[in-house]
Write a structure and sequence with these properties.
Blueprint: H1 9-62, E1 68-72, E2 76-83, E3 93-100, E4 105-111, E5 124-130, E6 133-141, E7 144-151, E8 157-162
Antiparallel strand pairs: 1-2, 2-3, 3-4, 4-5, 6-7, 7-8
């Protein structure tokens, strides 16, 4: 049998040089894959938060009694006086969606019978929803509500809700005036102008 030749020093050096070239490229590809997975995870988490926020806003409007106030400035301020979609187990809550000046943060405010701007004694729950909001517009016409929402460097979000009618104003019932019936005066028998008295019939025995 022929004897197997051992590796020469030159072959070992060449192998080490090849490993020195391949391993850094391999580590670099692993790092790129790890970064890609991290970016994908962050994107999915952000998309999940946006989807949850959009769903909450949708249910707030859909579960409201239709008494909705929309004030437009740089951004829209949306308030629902009564909605059954409460995040804090309230039977009915007042919910407002506003864009705060700090970082253009869209926030959800939930409570009972509060006014904006908030006072120091008012008890509400404020939840920051998303930062760097560029567009937040709401339009209400008849029974339709259109919502436009866009975050910086993100795709715009829009949805429409139908069947949210404005509450009708109750007409004040006019009280019917009772017509007073004229009181009957005691009738006085007419006087005999001739001076003769009317004969009284004799009593029967």
């Amino acid at each position: 049998m022929a004897k197997r030749k051992a590796f020469t020093l030159m072959e070992v050096l060449v192998s080490i040089a090849l490993l020195g070239i391949i391993l850094p490229a391999l580590y670099q590809s692993v790092d790129m894959l790890r970064d890609s997975n991290q970016h994908l995870f962050e994107y999915l988490e952000k998309a999940k938060k946006v989807s949850k926020a959009t769903k909450t806003l949708y249910l707030d409007i859909l579960s409201s009694d239709g008494n909705i106030t929309i004030k437009k400035d740089e951004f829209t301020r949306l308030c629902m006086e009564q909605t059954k979609n409460s995040l804090y187990a309230l039977p009915v809550a007042k919910v407002c969606w506003v864009v705060l000046k700090k970082d253009n943060t869209l926030a959800r405010i939930e409570g009972n019978a509060y006014n904006l701007p908030l006072g120091s004694e008012e008890r509400v729950e404020i939840n920051p929803i998303m930062k760097e909001v560029e567009v937040f517009d709401v339009y209400h016409q008849k029974d339709k509500i259109l919502v436009l929402l866009q975050q910086q460097a993100q795709e715009p979000i829009s949805f429409m809700i139908q069947g949210v009618s404005k509450p009708e104003k109750k007409k004040k019932e006019k009280k019917k005036k009772k017509t007073k019936k004229p009181k009957k005066k005691n009738q006085i028998p007419p006087k005999d102008t001739n001076g003769t008295k009317t004969p009284v019939p004799p009593s029967l025995i």
